Each structure stands twice: as C-alpha cells, then as structure tokens.
C-alpha cells in the first residue's frame, strides 16, 4: 500500500529527476577526468560523492558561516518587508504619497539593484550593516508593490459591506484589507527572500570576515586543491536561497491558508 | 392596499434624482422617483437591467448619495440610518471573507459593534439554525455551495437584528430550483424576524411570489412606472406559483412595462 | 482586476509546488490599468498632471538636497563616500566614450543570455506541458536553479566558459530560464477547457493543439517573463562582471569602488539603470506589437 502510494505520488518524477541529474553529473565528471582529460577537470565539475563527503566533513563550518549569512539576510529581509508593508499601506491611504512613491518603486524594479551592493559597501564599510541594508533594500520594493496590489485587489462589494456596517477606517484595514492583501504580500515575500540571500552573499564577496560568501571566495583562490570545498559552498549558497523560499511558502500556508491553491482536491494535476 | 398605505412609512423617497458623469455622457439613472415603503412590508423593485433598481437600493443603503431629492430611512436620513445600523444588506454575490469561518462571517457586524464573544457565538448558532445551516459553523466559505453561501450572507445581514433588510438580486446567480427553494426559505425567515424587506430582482415570478407590492421600474431614464399590489394570501406556498391568479399577475406586470 | 489577472503569473510558483506569486514588474500594469489615467496621460496636459509633476518635483528636490550636502550632514558622510550629483555628471562627461562602449558590452551580454535563457525556458515549458507527469519535475528543478544566488554561479561559469562574454551570457541564461519556463508553462496549461474540447472535436492532434491553441495562449505569459528577464538579465550581467571580467559596467563599477573613484562608480549605476529601463521598454513595446488581441492591451 505504502510503496504503491509512493509510486503514484507526484514527488516521484522529481525524485527521479534529481537522481538522474546527479548520475549524469557524476558520469560527466568521470568523463572529463578520465576520457576527455580536460585540464582542471575536477574544478570544472567535481565528483558528486567527493562534494557530498566534503559537505559532510565540514558541515560544522558551513553551517556556521551559512548561518551568519542567513541571519544577516533575515534581519534585512524583515526590516525591508516591514518597511515595504508600511509604504504600501500609506500608499493605499494617501493619494499624494502614492503619487510620490509609486513611480520610483516601479522604476527601482527596472534598474539593476544588486549593482548598488559595492556602493553601499563603499559607504558603510561595515559588513554586518551593509548586508542588512542590501537585503532590506532588495526586499523593500517587491514587497511594497505586491502588498499594494493585494490591498487594491479587495472586492468593491466587500468594502461597501464594511461601509454599510459603518465600520471605522482602522476596522476596514484590520478586518478586511490586511487579510485580503496577505496573498499579495506573500508573493512579494517569496520573490524577495532568495534575492535577499543573494544580496547578502554578494556583499560578503566584496570583502567581509564571516559568511558563506567569504569561504566561497577563499576556497576559489586557494585553487584546485580546494575545489570540493568551493563547490560545497556554492551548494550551501544555493540551498540557502531555496530554503528562504520554502520558509516563505510555509509561512504563507500558516498565515493565509484559505487560498484556493491550498484547498484539498481540485487542482491535482 | 389602503391598509398597507395606512401603516407608518419605514422608507420614504421624495423626488429622488440620480445623475452619473461618465467620460462620454451625462447619464440620468433615476428621474423623479417617489415611493413609500411601510414598516414590516415586503416590496420588490422590478425592472430590466439599466432601470436603476440597484441604484435605488444603494441610495437607501447610503452607498450612493442622490443628486437631488430626499431619502428617509427609519425616520432618519439614509446616512444616519446607516450609522445607527438600521438595515442589513445582501449583495448579488455573497461577499464572504475567505479567511473567516462561516460563523465568524455571520458575526462580523456584531464584532464591529463590539459585541462580546460569547454573545456572538450564541447568535451565530441561532442564525445558522434560522437559515438551515446547522453544522456548518466551522466550515470555510469555499466549502459551501453557492446557495449555502448566499444563506450565510442573509444570516450575516440579520445578525444585528436590523429593522430593514435590503437585498440586491441575492438569488440571481443561482439556478432556478435553488432560487425557488430559497424564496420559500426567505419568506419563512421573514415571518420570524418581521423586518421590512426591499428586494431587487429582474424576475417577475420571483417578485410576485415574495412581495406585498411590486415597484415596476423602466429604463432611460430610470423611473417608477407602476406599483402593483400582490393580493396573494400569506403564508405563500409553492403551489401558488401554478394558480391562475399568479399567472394573471405576471401578465399584469408584463403589461405595465412601457414599450418593453 | 480581471484584465490583469493573466498578467500576473509567477516565476517562482512551481518551486513551492503551487503557491501563487507575482512578478516584480507586472505589478505596474495591474495598478496602472485605470483607464481614466491612461487616457489622461495622452492628453496635452499630461505634464501638468499631478501624477507626473509630483514625483518629478520630489526627484528634483531629492537631487537638490543631495547636491547641497544635506544627506552628508544627516548621515555624517564624506564626499568621497557619497559623491555629489554634479561630480557624477562630471565623471560621466569625462568618460562618456568608455562608459558607452562598456554599456554596449554589458547590454549585449544581457541580451544574448536573455534570449538563450528564454528560449531554453520556453522549450522546457513545452516539454512540461506535453508530458506533464515527467516534464513537471524539470520545472521544479529549474525553479530551484532560480533560487541559486547569481554570485554562486559566477565563479562556476567562469571556470566553464572563460572570462569572455560567454561566461556572463551563461550566467544570464541560468538566471532567466526559470522565469520563462514557469510563466510559459502556466500560459500553456491555463487553456480554456472548452477551447481544448473544440480542438478535440476538430480531431486535432497534440502538435496542432500546441500550434493553434497553447502557444497562442501562452504569449501574454511569455511577455511577462520577458519583462522580468529584461531586468534580471542586466542584474546577472553586471553582477557577473564584478568578479572575473576586464570589461563592462560591472567591472568598471567594482573597480572604481576599489580605487575610490566613487563618481565613476555611480555613473556606471546611472548608465546601468538607463540601459535596464530601455531594455524593459523595448520588450514592452514588442509586447504591444505582438499581442494586440489581449485584453490587457485594450484601452
């Protein structure tokens, strides 16, 4: 029964994909090393099992440095998200603020924000603070824009209903607009979370003492002898980005469980 | 007729006019509408789309303000009546809040008025029983059918025990069978709560089956073209829909549409 | 609301299995879909419109405060930390030929990578729609790739493709693939079931369903992805140049910071922003040309 359900589960294809990919990786790595004999073969594509072993061996260090990155990205993310929500609420309440801020919020989405990282690092010259600033800045606008979209998506009849109850403005926000905007808020948060991690790592590469980016760079400069460690740090960086996204997805399920996607049945494809 | 008119008017409209300004034109949505609705009466506003029947209802609800004329609800201006929570309103769509359980949707108005939680819970169960949804208190709106959702919306409108119930085509999105059943249920609810009901519809049989009086509206510009008394006895039963008197009334109302 | 619903598919959704999310950029459409506003903008009075005047005035005041060193006093900054707008303008004028050629270099990396990545993403979406059970897994993998920080990709791509234009194009390819794959997949699968039945009644085979229905239906989503990718590709190219490049805006930017030529660094940012906006607007323009039929394009 259990094995049967696993076979039919939607995760099976994904599992096969991952295993297949790892097998191909291992195979290509072997080919580069022994058949084609490319120079620096192990640096270009190291054996999976070697990388896994390194990951395991240095898991303590990797966890510690990854944690530093994640922590700073997280603080910046939370500050940026809070500021974004605040701006969105202000924009939804005041036409003037909206007109002032909205064009800049949209334009900021069109420019390469990450390009600011070195400049901010240049101004602040403090790795902790600049990581927080970059993560916060990157989080701010997607959250503000998506939150505003959520606030605007409120059904007109629902607002009229509140009006018919003679509800006070704060009650309209608290009981109606904020809950209704939660799905929008979470789409912003899910976009912003991996970006915040990327931003934090980027600042570390600019020159810092701690963080996954630092050991990534260090092992890259140490050359081929540290290639497994380098690849491990890349994997940890990737996992941090994916983890940040998953945390937001989980939070969404807890905070806004009424959405159509979370309903049982239907939508099973 | 004379009996009805002799009662105290609950809703009064005097020479109400409503103009809209659109980009291309100046629309006269309602022209010189005057009408009285008595306390405890069930009336329908009937007409084709564009006749301003929904606009009329929204004026009573203070969701719109007339460009001319007076709207008096429960002896006050429409706005005062709204602030005093004199009416409950039901829209065409149920407008339930997805994130609230059925019982919490029903007690939303009470929550806004600051009623205590224990009282609210009690009221929710009482109302669910009234609309025949016992056992659905802890469900979420999406777990209910369209007809059930609309019943929740009615229960919500009744939660603060309003003197007046305003209903804007509440059953028009439902299928014919569900609609007829809900018509009967609405009448049974009404017999218990004794409020004044203003019911907007574009269905002639529905308006006849439910109402004491039917206000017939015509479009371009929206105006009151006839008032038809419905002398069918109460309580109304499903069989009455097949009575000759019923068909006669349908024909009369149909005739009263000018040039339609 | 309804007119914009199709404009807001997500590019991360599949990573969570099914969560909804919105693109960074399409938010603009959904909020600007107010028809009155759009009409108003076309009028002669558009420059007197407070919607334009207000932010413009705010921008000018911001620049003035900056120029008058208000921010320096406020945050206790030195001029070498935060250069004045006039100094940045001066740096741009002095180095304009270098800046222009580097902008062209970076932009060509971005465009090249963006086209490759979008093409790959579209193919993945095709496969995932044609064979949902097994192709779907590839979507999740691509979405995971999207969560990989660009900075982690940069050294690897450098190892694989050297330090020429190919390395950055590869980075951009990797970062733009997911948005296209996921959006195009949504567009291809969000087909009206009745339209599918209609094709079925014509005895149309799988290729015909794709040719006449699914691909057409995915176009609005595809352009949403292209708009996301226009921005993402500039970011990818610039960040890629930070580390292993000897040309391009990103190289000049990080190098200027290292040697404390702040005004030059800032002028790189300005040019990158301008190039990013132009790239975005070009894609938006193409969208108008290609999908006139879609409701989001009607006024």
Helix content of chain A: over 70%
Chains forming the largest contact: A-C, 74 and 72 residues
Question: Order of strands in the sheet with the most strands of chain B?
Answer: 6-7-8-3-9-10
What structural class do you assign from the helix and strand content of chain B?
A: alpha/beta
Number of helices of chain B: 10
Number of helices, counting only DSSP H or I runs of 4 residues or more of chain A = 12
Task: Supply the CATH superfamily name of the largest domain in chain A.
Answer: MetI-like
Largest sheet of chain A: none
DSSP strand count of chain B: 10
- Named at the architecture level, the CATH assignment of the largest domain in chain A is Orthogonal Bundle
Which term fits the overall shape of chain B? globular
Would you count the extended β strands of chain A for me? Answer: 0
List the SSEs and their pairings.
The complex is a heterotrimer of chains A (269), B (260) and C (299).
Chain A (H helix, E strand, L loop, with lengths): L1 H7 L2 H25 L5 H4 L3 H10 L1 H35 L1 H16 L6 H8 L2 H26 L3 H9 L4 H37 L6 H11 L4 H29 L14
Chain B lengths: L1 H5 L2 E13 L4 E13 L3 E5 L6 H8 L7 E6 L2 E2 H6 L3 E4 L11 H5 L1 H6 L3 H14 L15 H13 L5 E5 L7 H18 L2 E6 L2 H7 L2 E6 L4 E7 L14 H13 L4
Parallel strand pairs in B: 3-8, 3-9, 6-7, 7-8
Antiparallel strand pairs in B: 1-2, 1-4, 4-5, 9-10
Helix pairs in contact in B: 6-7, 9-10
Chain C lengths: L1 H4 L21 H6 L2 H8 L7 H18 L2 H6 L9 H10 L1 H35 L1 H16 L2 H12 L3 H25 L3 H9 L4 H38 L5 H10 L3 H29 L9
Helix pairs in contact in C: 6-14, 7-8, 7-10, 7-12, 7-14, 8-10, 9-10, 9-12, 10-12, 12-13, 12-14, 13-14
């Amino acid at each position: 029964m259990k094995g049967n359900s696993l076979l039919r589960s939607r995760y099976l294809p994904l599992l096969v994909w991952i295993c297949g990919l790892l097998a191909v990786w291992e195979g290509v790595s072997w080919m580069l090393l022994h058949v084609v004999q490319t120079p620096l073969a192990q640096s270009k594509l190291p054996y999976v099992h070697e990388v896994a072993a390194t990951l395991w061996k240095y898991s303590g260090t990797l966890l510690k440095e990854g944690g530093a990155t994640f922590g700073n990205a997280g603080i910046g993310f939370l500050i940026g998200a809070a500021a974004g929500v605040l701006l969105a609420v202000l924009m939804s309440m005041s036409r003037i603020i909206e007109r002032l801020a909205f064009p800049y919020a949209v334009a900021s989405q069109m420019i390469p924000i990450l390009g600011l990282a070195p400049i901010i690092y240049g101004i602040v010259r403090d790795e902790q603070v600049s990581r927080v600033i970059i993560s916060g800045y990157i989080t701010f606008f997607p959250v503000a824009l998506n939150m505003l979209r959520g606030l605007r998506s409120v059904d007109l009849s629902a607002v009229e209903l509140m009006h018919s109850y003679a509800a006070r403005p704060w009650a309209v926000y608290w009981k109606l607009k904020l809950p209704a905007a939660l799905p929008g808020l979470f789409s912003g948060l899910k976009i912003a979370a991996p970006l915040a991690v990327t931003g934090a790592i980027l600042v570390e590469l600019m020159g810092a003492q701690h963080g996954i980016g630092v050991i990534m760079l260090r092992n890259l400069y140490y050359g081929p002898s540290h290639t497994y460690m380098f690849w491990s740090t890349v994997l940890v960086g990737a996992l941090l980005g994916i983890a940040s996204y998953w945390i937001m997805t989980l939070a969404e399920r807890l905070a806004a469980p009424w959405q159509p996607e979370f309903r049982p049945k239907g939508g099973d494809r | 007729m004379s009996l009805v008119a002799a009662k105290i008017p609950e809703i009064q409209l005097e020479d109400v006019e409503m103009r809209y300004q659109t980009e291309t034109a100046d629309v006269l949505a309602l022209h010189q509408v005057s009408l009285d609705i008595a306390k405890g009466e069930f009336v329908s506003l009937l007409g084709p789309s564009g006749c301003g029947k929904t606009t009329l209802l929204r004026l009573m609800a203070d969701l719109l303000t007339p460009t001319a004329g007076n709207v008096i609800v429960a002896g006050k201006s429409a706005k005062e009546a709204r602030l005093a929570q004199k009416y409950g309103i039901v829209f065409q769509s149920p407008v339930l809040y997805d994130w609230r359980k059925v019982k919490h949707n029903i007690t939303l108005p009470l929550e806004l008025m600051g009623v205590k939680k224990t009282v609210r819970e009690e009221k929710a169960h009482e109302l669910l029983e009234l609309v025949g949804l016992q056992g659905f208190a802890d469900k979420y709106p999406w777990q209910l059918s369209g007809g059930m959702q609309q019943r929740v919306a009615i229960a919500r409108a009744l939660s603060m025990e309003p003197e007046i119930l305003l209903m804007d085509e509440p059953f028009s999105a439902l299928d014919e069978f569900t609609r007829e059943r809900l018509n009967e249920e609405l009448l049974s609810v009404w017999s218990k709560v004794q409020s004044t009901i203003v019911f907007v519809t574009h269905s002639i049989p529905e308006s006849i089956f439910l109402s004491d009086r039917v206000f017939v509206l015509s479009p371009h510009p929206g105006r009151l073209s006839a008032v038809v008394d419905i002398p069918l006895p109460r309580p109304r039963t499903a069989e009455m829909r097949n009575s000759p008197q019923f068909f006669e009334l349908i024909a009369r109302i149909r005739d009263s549409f000018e040039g339609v | 609301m309804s007119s914009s619903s199709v404009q807001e598919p997500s590019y991360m959704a599949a990573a969570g299995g099914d969560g909804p999310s919105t693109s960074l950029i399409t938010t603009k459409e959904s909020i600007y879909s107010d028809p009155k506003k759009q009409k108003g903008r076309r009028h002669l009075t558009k420059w007197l419109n407070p919607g334009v005047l207000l932010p413009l005035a705010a921008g000018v005041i911001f620049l003035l405060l900056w120029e008058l060193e208000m921010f320096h006093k406020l945050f206790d900054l030195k001029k070498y930390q935060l250069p004045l707008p006039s100094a940045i303008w001066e740096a741009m004028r002095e180095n304009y030929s270098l800046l222009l050629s580097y902008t062209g270099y970076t932009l060509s990396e971005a465009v090249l990578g963006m086209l490759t990545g979008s093409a790959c993403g579209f193919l993945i979406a095709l496969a995932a729609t044609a064979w949902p059970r097994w192709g779907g897994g590839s979507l999740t993998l691509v979405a995971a790739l999207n969560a990989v920080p660009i900075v982690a990709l940069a050294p690897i791509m450098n190892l694989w493709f050297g330090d020429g234009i190919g390395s950055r194009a590869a980075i951009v390819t990797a970062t733009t693939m997911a948005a296209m794959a996921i959006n195009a997949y949504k567009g291809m699968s969000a087909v009206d079931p009745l339209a599918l039945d209609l094709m079925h009644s014509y005895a149309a085979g799988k290729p015909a369903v794709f040719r006449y229905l699914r691909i057409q239906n995915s176009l609005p989503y595809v352009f949403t992805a292209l708009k996301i990718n226009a921005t993402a590709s500039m970011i990818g190219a610039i960040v890629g140049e930070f580390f292993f490049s000897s040309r391009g805006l990103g190289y000049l930017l990080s190098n200027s910071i290292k040697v404390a030529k702040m005004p030059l660094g800032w002028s790189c940012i300005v040019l990158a922003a301008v190039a990013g906006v132009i790239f975005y607007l070009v894609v938006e323009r193409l969208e108008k040309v290609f999908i006139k039929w879609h409701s989001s394009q009607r006024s």
